[in-house]
Design brief:
The longest helix has 17 residues. The chain folds into 3 domains: about 170 residues, HSP40/DNAj peptide-binding domain (Sandwich); about 80 residues, HSP40/DNAj peptide-binding domain, CATH 2.60.260; about 35 residues, no CATH class. The strands form 6 sheets. It has a 4-stranded mixed sheet. It has a 3-stranded mixed sheet with strand order 1-9-8. A two-stranded antiparallel ribbon has the order 2-7. The protein has 9 helices and 15 strands. With about 375 residues, the chain is α+β, with helices and mostly antiparallel strands.
Length: about 375
């Protein structure tokens, strides 16, 4: 079976720096994290991303990959004779000629923790004016029994007898260049150089445990749907009690019954009777701050928009607020009693707008045609 392309999974070059690998991992982890993307395919992708970061962030495992092996494969994945073609790593060739071996040292047990993402649903009122709200986070925290050491109380890690504390063992390969000495992580201690003979019973030697905890997050006024708020060092505690990652709170704004939001502006629709649009009226609009009176001028046409300044959402950066736009729908009556119809016809005659049957000669369509022909 072909080895996994860990560089391709993270989308980085083979000569990528440690910082580039970390940035690529964080970007992909936020996109495919199960809390954000529940798609089963995304969950499998998330597992591959974690595996790729575990390998490429560890210098010893990364070198195995560069030599054509797979450190996560059964048996350690160290490349055997002929792995990756007839050639071996450049450093191994130098070792064969000069009898030296680069000292990589044991891998650290203490490593930084991963970032975490939490989805938070808020109402329009909360995103507009801000809110302090408790959130529940299920993450890895420092084991209080061993304080991150991973050892049972009163015990300490011991030096690995197999590698002598180096975290790696050397092997000799015969090639057309002669004997080549290569190094790989020690299977007895997994490259740490030490062994924990008596692991902590609480965390099993990992130095951290999973728990559910409650935090209070302050949401600033003016946040929008999809924005993320970073809580530094509130994410996963790293293996061995390493420094925690960050927690990102992703805002999801619930749809409002009345208002729709575009940036910092709010929009709503109000229906007014035909007579009110013709004669003018005063409307009472319920804004985010309370009730606001707005005048509808006489002769207002369907589709007109009224603007109420500074009654939208506060700007996230800087002072001021957006506006509230009231879109008017003019309602025409669908049923008239005889008296109402008589009054309306008299009104039409007084304005020279006699109502004619559309099918009659010289009716509405004829007048429209004459108007276009310049005879009206």
């Amino acid at each position: 079976m072909a080895n996994k392309d860990y560089y391709g999974i993270l989308g980085v070059r083979r000569d990528a720096s440690a910082d580039e690998i970390k940035r690529a991992y964080r970007k992909l982890a936020r996109e495919y994290h199960p809390d954000v993307n529940p798609d089963p395919a995304a969950q499998e992708k998330f597992k591959d991303i974690n595996a790729a970061y575990e390998v490429l962030s560890d210098p010893a495992k990364r070198e195995i990959v560069d030599l054509g092996g797979d450190p996560l494969a059964p048996g350690g994945g160290a490349p055997g004779p002929g792995a990756g073609g007839p050639f071996v790593g450049f450093q191994d060739i130098m070792d064969a000629f000069f009898g030296t071996s680069a000292a990589r040292g044991p891998r650290p047990r203490v490593r930084p923790g991963a970032d975490a993402i939490l989805r938070l649903e808020l109402d329009l009122q909360e995103t507009a004016f801000g809110v302090e709200t408790p959130i529940t986070v299920d993450t890895a925290v420092l084991c209080t029994t061993c304080s991150g050491a991973g050892t049972a109380p009163g015990t300490h890690p011991t030096t690995c007898d197999v590698c002598g504390g180096r975290g790696e063992v050397q092997s000799v390969q015969r090639t057309f260049l002669g004997q080549v000495v290569s190094a790989r992580p020690c299977a007895a201690c997994q490259g740490y150089g030490t062994i924990i003979p008596h692991p902590c019973q609480t965390c099993g030697g990992d130095g951290r445990v999973r728990t559910r905890r409650t935090l209070t997050v302050k949401i600033p006024a003016g946040v929008e749907d999809g924005m993320r708020i970073r809580l530094a060092q509130q994410g996963e505690v790293g293996p061995g009690g390493g420094p925690p990652g960050d927690l990102y709170v992703e805002i999801h704004e619930r749809p409002h019954d009345v208002y729709s939001r575009k940036g910092d502006d709010l929009h709503c629709r109000v229906t007014v009777p035909m007579t009110a649009a013709a004669l003018g009226t005063r409307l009472t609009i319920k804004t985010l701050d309370g009730e606001e009176n707005v005048d509808v001028k006489a002769g207002t046409q369907p589709g007109a928009t009224l603007r109420i300044r500074a009654k939208g959402v506060p700007h996230l950066r800087g002072a001021g607020r957006g506006d509230l736009f009231v879109h008017l729908d003019v309602r025409t009556p669908t049923k008239l009693d005889p008296e109402q119809e008589r009054i309306l016809r008299e009104f039409a005659r007084s304005r020279g707008e006699e109502v004619a049957e559309l099918s009659k000669q010289g009716g509405f369509f004829s007048r429209m045609r004459d108007a276009f022909n310049g005879h009206a």
